[in-house]
Design goal:
The chain is mostly helical. It contains five helices and two strands, in the order ααααββα. It folds into two domains: 16-57, no CATH class; 65-118, no CATH class.
Protein backbone atom coordinates (compact mmCIF):
# COMPACT_ATOMS: atom_id res chain seq x y z
CA UNK A 1 0.00 0.00 0.00
CA UNK A 2 1.33 3.39 -0.92
CA UNK A 3 1.07 6.21 1.44
CA UNK A 4 0.20 9.70 0.21
CA UNK A 5 2.03 12.40 2.03
CA UNK A 6 0.49 15.78 2.64
CA UNK A 7 2.36 18.79 1.32
CA UNK A 8 4.19 20.80 3.96
CA UNK A 9 2.25 23.69 5.50
CA UNK A 10 3.76 27.08 4.78
CA UNK A 11 3.53 30.06 7.09
CA UNK A 12 1.65 32.03 4.40
CA UNK A 13 -1.11 29.40 4.48
CA UNK A 14 -1.42 29.78 8.24
CA UNK A 15 -1.76 33.55 7.93
CA UNK A 16 -4.59 33.15 5.44
CA UNK A 17 -6.42 30.99 7.98
CA UNK A 18 -6.14 33.74 10.58
CA UNK A 19 -7.61 36.38 8.25
CA UNK A 20 -9.75 34.62 5.63
CA UNK A 21 -10.66 37.83 3.77
CA UNK A 22 -8.11 38.52 1.08
CA UNK A 23 -8.00 42.20 0.17
CA UNK A 24 -6.98 41.35 -3.38
CA UNK A 25 -10.45 39.96 -4.19
CA UNK A 26 -12.95 42.57 -5.48
CA UNK A 27 -15.62 43.58 -2.99
CA UNK A 28 -13.86 42.05 0.00
CA UNK A 29 -11.72 44.92 1.17
CA UNK A 30 -12.44 46.30 4.64
CA UNK A 31 -13.83 49.47 3.05
CA UNK A 32 -16.77 47.56 1.57
CA UNK A 33 -17.61 45.86 4.85
CA UNK A 34 -18.43 49.12 6.61
CA UNK A 35 -21.51 49.63 4.38
CA UNK A 36 -24.10 47.46 6.04
CA UNK A 37 -27.05 46.31 3.93
CA UNK A 38 -29.36 48.34 6.14
CA UNK A 39 -27.41 51.50 5.34
CA UNK A 40 -27.77 50.88 1.63
CA UNK A 41 -31.50 50.11 1.98
CA UNK A 42 -32.12 53.26 4.04
CA UNK A 43 -30.24 55.34 1.47
CA UNK A 44 -32.31 53.96 -1.41
CA UNK A 45 -35.57 54.53 0.48
CA UNK A 46 -34.44 58.07 1.29
CA UNK A 47 -33.74 58.90 -2.35
CA UNK A 48 -37.14 57.61 -3.51
CA UNK A 49 -38.95 59.36 -0.65
CA UNK A 50 -37.28 62.66 -1.50
CA UNK A 51 -38.24 62.24 -5.15
CA UNK A 52 -41.87 61.49 -4.31
CA UNK A 53 -42.23 64.25 -1.71
CA UNK A 54 -40.87 66.82 -4.14
CA UNK A 55 -44.20 66.87 -5.98
CA UNK A 56 -46.68 67.48 -3.11
CA UNK A 57 -44.35 69.81 -1.22
CA UNK A 58 -43.78 71.81 -4.40
CA UNK A 59 -47.49 72.52 -4.80
CA UNK A 60 -47.95 70.06 -7.64
CA UNK A 61 -50.19 67.03 -8.00
CA UNK A 62 -49.33 63.56 -9.23
CA UNK A 63 -52.08 62.94 -11.77
CA UNK A 64 -51.63 61.06 -14.95
CA UNK A 65 -52.76 62.12 -18.38
CA UNK A 66 -55.30 59.26 -18.51
CA UNK A 67 -57.22 60.74 -15.63
CA UNK A 68 -58.10 63.85 -17.62
CA UNK A 69 -58.39 62.35 -21.08
CA UNK A 70 -60.12 59.05 -20.33
CA UNK A 71 -61.70 58.79 -16.89
CA UNK A 72 -63.22 62.25 -16.33
CA UNK A 73 -65.05 62.24 -19.70
CA UNK A 74 -66.20 58.67 -19.07
CA UNK A 75 -67.60 59.56 -15.64
CA UNK A 76 -69.28 62.58 -17.18
CA UNK A 77 -70.86 60.33 -19.82
CA UNK A 78 -72.01 57.96 -17.06
CA UNK A 79 -73.59 60.82 -15.10
CA UNK A 80 -75.38 62.13 -18.20
CA UNK A 81 -76.70 58.70 -19.18
CA UNK A 82 -77.94 57.88 -15.68
CA UNK A 83 -79.60 61.30 -15.35
CA UNK A 84 -81.58 60.48 -18.52
CA UNK A 85 -82.62 57.18 -16.94
CA UNK A 86 -80.48 55.01 -19.22
CA UNK A 87 -78.01 52.29 -18.31
CA UNK A 88 -74.98 53.09 -20.48
CA UNK A 89 -74.16 49.86 -22.30
CA UNK A 90 -72.23 51.54 -25.13
CA UNK A 91 -70.18 54.73 -25.27
CA UNK A 92 -70.44 56.24 -28.77
CA UNK A 93 -67.90 58.97 -27.91
CA UNK A 94 -64.90 56.63 -27.60
CA UNK A 95 -63.33 56.04 -31.02
CA UNK A 96 -66.12 54.47 -33.15
CA UNK A 97 -67.91 53.34 -29.99
CA UNK A 98 -66.88 51.02 -27.20
CA UNK A 99 -68.59 48.88 -24.58
CA UNK A 100 -69.16 50.91 -21.46
CA UNK A 101 -70.99 48.73 -18.95
CA UNK A 102 -68.77 45.73 -19.79
CA UNK A 103 -65.57 47.76 -19.37
CA UNK A 104 -64.32 46.97 -15.88
CA UNK A 105 -62.33 50.23 -15.70
CA UNK A 106 -65.53 52.27 -15.87
CA UNK A 107 -66.84 50.62 -12.68
CA UNK A 108 -70.45 51.45 -13.54
CA UNK A 109 -71.90 49.04 -10.98
CA UNK A 110 -69.24 49.63 -8.29
CA UNK A 111 -71.05 51.11 -5.24
CA UNK A 112 -68.37 53.61 -4.10
CA UNK A 113 -68.45 55.19 -7.56
CA UNK A 114 -71.70 56.90 -6.61
CA UNK A 115 -69.43 59.71 -5.38
CA UNK A 116 -68.73 60.60 -9.02
CA UNK A 117 -72.45 60.85 -9.70
CA UNK A 118 -73.16 63.13 -6.74
CA UNK A 119 -69.99 65.25 -6.57
CA UNK A 120 -69.72 68.27 -8.87
CA UNK A 121 -66.84 67.54 -11.22
Amino acid sequence: MTRVSNPPVRSADLKSLENPVDASEPGTSPGWRRFAPSTVAISIIGVFTAALLRVPLGGQAMMSYDLFVYFFPAKSFLRTALSRGELPLWNPDTFFGAPFLANIQMAVLYPPDIIFLVAPF
